[in-house]
Design a protein that fits this description.
The complex is a heterodimer. In chain A, about 75% of the residues lie in helices and about 0% in strands. Chain A is an all-alpha fold. Chain A has three domains: about 1-30; about 35-65; about 70-115, no CATH class. The mean pLDDT of chain A is about 85. By secondary structure, chain B is mostly helical. Chain B folds into two domains: about 5-155, no CATH class; about 185-235, no CATH class. Helices cover about 75% and strands about 0% of the residues of chain B. Chain B has helices at about 5-35, 40-50, 55-65, 70-80, 85-90, 100-110, 115-120, 125-155, 170-185, 190-205, 210-225, 225-235. In chain B, helix 3 (about 55-65) runs antiparallel to helix 4 and helix 10 (about 190-205) packs across helix 11 (about 210-225). Classes of the chains: A mainly alpha, B mainly alpha. At the A-B interface, helix 1, helix 2, helix 3 and helix 4 of A face helix 1, helix 2, helix 3, helix 4 and helix 5 of B.
């Protein structure tokens, strides 16, 4: 087994087990009618949008892992494609349309203009 | 009510999810196969979609595998990304009470955003019918997702054009989720906090090490701001 296979198996196993545990969390803890502490409910609610926002930044930073800011077109492909996604989604509310259009804009820019 | 009629009702209710999951699953599958090129990738796509059944996660693991992210980071990120599932269970506790272990295990395992939305709405007068309906909805949605991802991975192996830049699909998915969340005013400050903490994390650490400091910063901020932020949530609790 090569290193990548080990990584794939570990990532799939860890994500699956943790996701199931998260889903089961309330059933394991509060099955006997106990009430969930307020702070857990609160943190759970605010963390969802925060984690997604963090991942957007992480994804964009990740694109510059192996190249300099100048080589990547000073963030212009990311900026254009992100605005496309946000504007289109705010307006049309169609997730797939927004993702495909934004990705197409990005692919076009990195393959044609900033390669 | 007969089993068959309950199944038809579940199928009918799940049709919008059929469209959404197959399309989104295919996008995730194409991304996985486009980024990680190996002969057995379709099998891994199938296995991960079958076991996790989680949209954002399915996109995110592509980068985690590609960059061989530290497993502790994988674990923590999964918690942050999917912590909302724990909240869904809270509102289903009563509905799932008294269901046998195996069925309950499957209902919990298969609890996605969309499945939760359909199950929370079901209100058959008979408890047994309710359970059957939830099981059917869960199995249908689960199968749509697995089919979408697997077909996408198959298609991704044979794409006739360069896939350079296709990883933006993951950023785009997160932006879509974020845009939807920010339609609700109360999510805007939490989202902005996440944004600022991530930028701060990147300012002080490398890309590979930025996430854990960012997660710690945002958790501390949220606990400190609890008094101010929680009000918005309790005021709008009944409408959501």
């Amino acid at each position: 087994m090569n290193a990548q296979t080990v990584t794939i198996i570990s990532v799939i196993a860890i994500t699956a087990v943790i996701t199931i545990l998260l889903r089961a969390f309330p059933f394991l803890l509060f099955s006997s009618g106990k009430k969930c502490p307020g702070i857990i409910t609160y943190v759970g609610k605010v963390l969802s949008p925060a984690a997604i926002a963090m991942l957007v930044i992480y994804c964009i930073c990740s694109a510059y892992r192996d190249r300099t800011f100048a080589q990547g077109g000073f963030g212009l492909p990311e900026l254009t494609a992100s605005i496309t996604v946000i504007a289109l989604h705010w307006w049309k509310k169609n997730p797939l349309l927004s993702i495909i259009a934004g990705t197409a804009v990005y692919m076009l820019m990195v393959q044609r203009f900033f390669c | 009510m007969t089993r068959k009629r309950i199944f038809y009702q579940a199928f009918y209710a799940s049709l919008p999810v059929l469209m959404g999951y197959t399309a989104m699953g295919m996008a995730a599958g194409i991304l996985l196969a486009g980024k990680i090129q190996r002969p057995d990738i379709v099998f891994w796509a199938f296995l991960s979609s079958l076991t996790s059944i989680s949209g954002a996660l399915q996109f995110a693991i592509v980068d985690w595998i590609d960059n061989r992210m530290a497993l502790i980071d994988v674990a923590l990120l999964t918690v942050f990304l999917n912590i909302r599932y724990a909240m869904y269970g809270l509102s289903l506790l009563e509905k799932f009470r008294g269901i046998g272990f195996r069925r309950k295990f499957y209902l919990i395992w298969s609890l996605t955003d969309e499945t939760f939305a359909l199950e929370a709405e079901s209100n058959f007068p008979d408890r047994h019918a309710n359970t059957l309906y939830c099981l059917f909805v869960a199995m249908l949605n689960h199968s749509y997702w697995v089919c979408g991802v697997t077909i996408g991975a198959l298609a991704g192996k044979f794409l006739p054009f360069s896939t350079k830049g296709i990883d933006f699909a993951m950023t785009a998915l997160f932006l879509v989720v974020l845009t939807d969340q920010c339609r609700e005013k109360r999510n805007r400050i939490p989202a902005a906090t996440g944004l600022i903490c991530a930028i701060a994390g990147r300012a002080f650490f490398s890309v590979s090490n930025m996430l854990i400091p960012a997660m710690i910063m945002m958790t501390v901020t949220f606990i400190a701001l609890r008094k101010n932020l929680e009000k918005q949530f309790s005021l709008t609790e009944d409408r959501s």
